[in-house]
Structure prediction request, 575 residues.
Amino acid sequence: MQDAHSHSAISHSAIWRALQTQAAELKQRELKDLFAEEPQRARDFSLELPHFLLDYSKNHIDQSVFVNLLRLADEAGLEQWRRDFFSGKPINATEGRPVLHPALRGGLEADLEVGGVSVTGAVEAELQRLKELVVLLHNGHLTGCSGKRITDVVNLGVGGSHLGPQTAIEALRAHRKGDVAVHFVSNVDGTQLTDVLAGLDAESTLFIVSSKTFTTSETMTNARSGLKWLQRAAPEVPAETLVQRHFVGVTASPDKAQQFGILPERTYSFWDWVGGRYSLWSSIGLPIAIACGFDNFRALLDGAAEMDRHFREAPFAQNAPVIMALLSVWYCTFMGYPAQAVLPYDQALHMLPAYLQQADMESNGKSTTRAGVEVDYATGPLIWGQTGINGQHAFYQYLHQSPEVVPADFIGSVIPGHDLEGHHEILLANMFAQSQALMNGVDAESVSRELAAKGLSPKEIKRLTPFKVHRGGKPSNTILLKELTPRSLGGLIALYEHKIFVQGVILQIYSFDQWGVELGKGLASKLEPKLAAGDLSAEDGSTTQLIEYYRRINGAVTSTELPEVGVAESAGEQA
Ligand code: F6P
Prediction:
């Protein structure tokens, strides 16, 4: 076994080579035949936890591959990494920070101190402050400048400061309180802010500026435009007062929120040991607590903490995040399938694929090992998907008959979130049928038989059969929740978070930084004034042409005027 933090390349280990050989062998074996060979397969390759059944039997593995994948986890030093993660070691080494999002939900074994401060104490204190604000809002005691009750909250934030809260609020639609509506604006494309504000009354609107760094250009631009909208509605009120009464800040840089003019008592903090894409459990979850009530937010945290405990304590062979991570590595790195699909059969989970795209791809879409050298293997997968039923009528054709193999996660709930008769059986029957169809496919003989039964001529049967054959052998997991509740949702999201961490450990990459998103941000901030000034110096031919065309069509008139209220934006800060 490698020392947990050693930098020797795992891809040179004996177990790695064994898995490469097995991948080549498994490709010669039909997935459906594995079922015939192993009568206990469904039971052996599934795991029942308090909130869900994880059925991973429709994967292209056998017992010996599974055992070797577990050995790979040992080889990667996962046991030590898991201990270091939960004990607050600075495992986000390129930023020199611990990674402690489990602390936000009571998921640590014991309290920790970071910088001499009790993590649990700091978290609880901030949760209490959030609770007070939520209660004020729901009691109707939070008012705007004119004395009108706040009835609409607009979250201005992007990436981790948007996706988690909106995904959770959509998922918990059955638990939403009706009295305060929560809206989201993440895009700097002014269309989104314009659309959201069009339906709102400035006097009863509160903006939450959600930004870990409080420098993200898109969010700060939206915040300034939000303020201008308030000013247009109440020109007699000084801007400072509007900010004080109509803005809340959620950030790990409270000083910057205060430079913007937000009151300290309306600034809610979190810490640099919380990654942006792991922050929905922190004050960033404020929109969830507002939309669904503080108790439901707490239940979401509790559900995630249960998953933390499971991940921390369960042996790897019965550990859901570890199993799912090993399967992902198996497909992406050993079988050579670069993409994985997330397919919720639950309308309430319609944003989960987008959420997991950031969580997974911003974490593991990397090509430098912890030793600082280029990987010689595939790392994290391309994650995509949408609700299953809509997908069936859009891209499932590709899943079934393209030559590519896209392993999929099917996610559904036994108990529906509505009481309409007949719908849920159709939905779940489709989910079960799709994973079955992807696994088994349909061979030429069966197709011919079916066409013959329909009375087609032998010539027609011969002509049509090749088009109707489904190769099969497309693997999937099924996560069948008992019911989508705040607790089970917390557990589901934490399951994926830990899965992503385990993948990173095995692939020997750092999962908690995101240097890859900085380059484009930096260039955009340099190009922005050039667009306005028509400065075409030092650009490549294509960019020059794009700027020229933009200026020609646009009449070369753009405004770069910056409003006075605000903080300096940076292109390089890490969230
Ligand atoms: O997209 C890059 C990123 O840094 C994400 O990691 C982060 O969630 C997002 O930008 C928003 O950052 P912030 O919360 O600092 O505005």
The first helix runs from residue 14 to 26. DSSP finds 23 helices and 13 strands in the chain.
